[in-house]
Design goal:
Structural class: alpha+beta
Order of helices and strands: EEHHHEHEHEHEEEEHEHEHEEHE
Number of strands: 14
Strand content: 15-25%
CATH architecture of the largest domain: 4-Layer Sandwich
CATH topology of the largest domain: Deoxyribonuclease I, Chain A
Number of helices: 10
Number of domains: 2
CATH superfamily of the largest domain: Endonuclease/exonuclease/phosphatase
Helix content: 10-25%
Strand order of the largest sheet: 5-6-4-3-14-13
Distance between the termini: 72 Å
């Protein structure tokens, strides 16, 4: 039907003609419209005929001159109600007080609602309800037990496996977003270094489902050098944090000259303040994603990137609290590349100035990536914060025990967490 929306709350019905009686010579009744509830609308001709007291049959020849059209009266009546002017008659014909067909006087019509708004029984049209609220497009949440506490600073790193990509990673993107949401909200860590975020819009959508959290992606315009180092379609690193605990005061891309060594994804550095009670502790958080794969050429790129990072940290941040969560794509005791030492030997040998608190996970034989035997997701810390480290708190969180088909729906990496005591 013209003008009808069958899938909305209402249907707009237009008259098929501009006048009520097709055979009359009287002036045409202006086209009118009305709204009726969905599912109850009739054919436009039938509805319009019912509104005008017309059954749909044309009048017989010779009868047109013996009556006035009710449509003209309705048109004149509507004009009178709007302007306050007296109701005009259609011509110099003899005045009548009633329609010869219906017997309804014009004076009585003034007491009735207009037919275009109340077609039957004189009752006003029922209110049209507003649209129903859209349901949450994400699947129902899954409960993930908390690991963070209000008395500690809980830091995590997690590779999100091509999050937001339409061609790689989990196929069901809303499901992946929902499960990432569940893990972050359930784990209750204060700070997440994340890797493999492909879509900035998906990242923004994720943040909208994380009450109490904010985030920053490497290609954000507020990140110095970010848009130059990361394009929209590349996998990116980022930070997700509790706004009640973490305040970001500045962000930039570092070591852009080592773009090749970092596989096209140089580290994201953020200056932050950790707020606990009345104490605000400044720190530097660097999120990285090292070159993947077991080939010797990949190992060499990881080793070169590590050497460049250590040189930068020693020169620029020697006396500051520094935390480096990331997907390091290698272990810290020996390399995933056969016959090679860990590419992160410069940091391992620099203890206690630089420490991997997650190295204790390597010693226990756990894995942070499904299908392999090594911990390749680590967190590096400077000696300025290591006295606050809670021994034994490093954890590969087996959230795959709570999420069905975790590898296919969420990620192939598991979150890795560490905990630091906060000042009283």
């Amino acid at each position: 039907m013209a003008g009808q929306q069958r899938h909305g709350w209402s249907v707009r019905v237009d008259s098929p003609r501009g006048r009520c009686h097709p055979g009359s010579r009287a002036r045409e009744l202006p086209r009118r419209t009305a709204r009726v509830r969905a599912g109850t609308g009739t054919h436009a001709r039938d509805w319009w005929g019912a509104a005008c007291g017309w059954s749909g049959r044309r009048s017989r020849p010779g009868r047109v001159g013996r009556r006035r059209r009710l449509g003209f009266r309705l048109s004149a009546l509507a004009l009178s109600l709007r302007t306050g002017a007296p109701v005009a008659q259609p011509g110099p014909r003899r005045d009548r007080t009633a329609d010869t067909r219906t017997g309804v006087t014009l004076g009585r019509l003034l007491l009735l609602p207009l037919a275009v708004t109340a077609c039957g029984g004189g009752s006003p049209a029922a209110p049209i309800p507003g649209p129903e609220p859209e349901p949450d497009p994400l699947p129902q949440p899954i409960a993930i037990p908390a690991q963070g506490t209000a008395a500690t600073l809980d830091l995590a790193t997690w590779n999100l496996l091509n999050f937001g990509s339409t061609g790689q990673g989990p196929r069901d993107e809303p499901l992946q977003l929902a499960r990432i949401r569940d893990v972050i909200l359930g784990t209750d860590a204060d700070l997440w270094g994340v890797q493999e975020v492909t879509s900035a819009s998906a990242f923004t959508t994720l943040l909208s489902h994380l009450p109490g959290y904010a985030g920053l992606l490497a290609n954000d315009s507020s990140v110095a050098g970010g848009p130059d180092s990361y394009s929209d379609g590349e996998i990116k690193v980022g930070l997700i944090f509790k706004t009640s605990v973490v305040e970001v005061t500045g962000a930039r891309i570092i070591l852009a000259e080592l773009d090749h060594e970092f596989a096209g994804r140089p580290p994201l550095e953020m200056r932050v303040r950790f707020n606990h009670g009345n104490v605000a502790n400044p720190a530097v958080v660097i999120v990285l994603h090292a070159k993947a794969d077991q080939q010797v050429a990949s190992w060499e790129r990881r080793a070169a990137a590590a050497a460049g990072l250590k040189e930068y940290l020693d020169a620029e941040l020697a006396d500051e609290v520094v935390l480096v969560p990331g997907d390091w794509n290698d272990d810290v005791d020996e390399s995933i590349t056969s016959g090679r030492d860990t590419p992160y030997r410069p940091f391992v040998d620099a203890a206690p100035e630089w420490v991997f608190p997650t190295a204790e996970l390597t010693a226990t034989g756990v894995t942070s990536i499904l299908g392999f035997d090594d911990v390749i997701d680590h967190i590096l810390a400077s000696n300025e914060i290591m006295p606050a480290y809670e021994p034994g708190s490093a954890l590969v969180y087996r959230v795959d025990e709570y999420i069905p088909d975790y590898r296919d729906t969420t990620s192939d990496h598991l979150p890795v967490l560490v905990r630091f005591r906060t000042p009283n």
